[in-house]
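To illustrate the input format used throughout this study, we show a single complete record. The first block contains the structure-token representation of the backbone; no residue identities are included at this stage. The design step must infer an amino acid for every position from geometry alone.
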């Protein structure tokens, strides 16, 4: 059975504005995936050029931990925005949703995303390089970062991205993945964004304990 959530943003959108919608969970939705959202304005949401990194954690019998998706739409008309997110299956953790609205320019069509899945950390930080900024319409970058510590530390891991504005940080102090449990994780997801008009690099620091896995998706608009 699918699972849906309607986010009444209270954002007044103008025709032609760009809408970036992001949905992610620390756990799995039992071998499902995130559907493209819909909204009350009739916008058509599309995935980034060349696809994206939808799975940030490790794979298990019931699905991959840290799954989600980022999509973009151009508003076909003006109005107060309400976005409905949907998952193919029931989620085993609490999802996080964020909607960004960009205006003031005509969207050039350049919408891309990149990142890595299930990287084993050797320390408590990683450097991320951002390139191709000149091709972006708005020169905004949106980060989804996932980290999991195993075995459980009984604390939600910390995540901090240098220079970015944090929007959400949430997770699980100890999550049993699948039933019966295939793993026990302390995990977290971070949403953040930055405006930067040239190519740049930044560091992400996170809790490092036991076996630490991280992954991220960086969306460029």
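Output of the design step:
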């Amino acid at each position: 059975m699918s699972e849906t959530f309607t986010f009444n943003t209270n954002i007044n959108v103008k025709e032609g504005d760009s809408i970036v919608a992001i949905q992610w969970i620390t756990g799995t939705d039992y071998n499902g995936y995130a559907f493209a959202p819909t909204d009350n304005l009739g916008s058509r949401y599309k995935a980034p050029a060349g696809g994206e990194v939808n799975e940030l954690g490790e794979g298990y019998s019931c699905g991959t931990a840290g799954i989600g998706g980022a999509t973009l739409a151009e508003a076909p008309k003006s109005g107060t925005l309400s976005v409905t997110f949907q998952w193919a299956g029931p989620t085993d953790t609490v999802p996080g949703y964020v909607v960004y609205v960009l205006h003031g320019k005509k969207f050039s069509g350049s919408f891309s995303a990149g990142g890595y899945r299930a990287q084993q950390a050797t320390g408590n930080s990683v450097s991320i390089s951002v390139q191709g900024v000149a091709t972006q319409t708005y020169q905004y970058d949106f980060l989804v970062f996932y980290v999991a510590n195993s075995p459980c530390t009984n604390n939600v891991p910390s995540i901090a991205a240098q220079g970015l504005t944090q929007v959400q940080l949430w997770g699980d102090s100890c999550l049993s993945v699948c039933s019966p449990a295939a793993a026990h994780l302390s995990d977290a997801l971070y949403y953040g964004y930055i405006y930067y008009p040239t190519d740049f690099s930044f560091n992400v620091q996170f809790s490092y304990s036991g076996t630490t896995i991280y992954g991220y998706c960086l969306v460029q608009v």
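Structural context for interpreting the output: Residues 3-220 form one domain. The chain has a mean pLDDT of 93.
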